[in-house]
Amino acid sequence: MSSKENKTRVDIYAKITDRIVADLEKGVRPWVKPWNAANTGGRITRPLRHNGLPYQGINTLLLWSEAVSRGFVSPIWMTFKQSIELGGHVRKGETGATVVYASRFTRTETDAHGEEVERGIPFLKAYTVFSADQIDGLPEQYYLDPAPATDPVERIAHADTFFANTGAVIRHGGNQAYFNPGLDIVQMPPFESFRDAPSYCDPRT
């Protein structure tokens, strides 16, 4: 790998790290509250490409962070070129978000014995995408509210049995978790609003 390629990779990693650290410094920490009131209408929607395929890995975190910080509603992201191909145009003055593409290619080289060997070389490429909220003129379906993704949180059977055996009265609703001594009840947000079953069951959350 050339020094230029290595520097590009380091710069991309540094940019991603800086963004995540900045979110943490602003108090965006996943362990502060394990539920989200918005989840009661459906599970969180993953960022999607223009063709409906979901982003994966670090790109999911990057685009979630970008959407939250800039107030975007649409989960759909695309490049400047893709927006033009779909008949739209990015509004003047809009800035995009950085996502990365990681893969590898194979290069045939000659080793010290004069024999040809294949070597896999990883590479990382950064490119810029825009939210559909930043683009005018796209087909109507790109501006529709996305249907909640089907991603139900599975319950933990032995935990449910334990809670039932305590005899405690557990009520669900609202966006706060607490014990009401006057009514002798445990109040919990709806189960579906938690990011996962362990977050619902663990008293430390």
UniProtKB/TrEMBL annotation:
Pfam families, A to Z: ArdcN (PF08401), MPTase-PolyVal (PF18818)
Annotated ranges, domain Polyvalent protein metallopeptidase: 158-201
InterPro entries: ArdC_N, MPTase-PolyVal
Domain N-terminal intervals: 11-130
Span of the signal peptide: none
Protein name, as recorded: Antirestriction protein ArdC
Protein source organism: Rhizobium binae
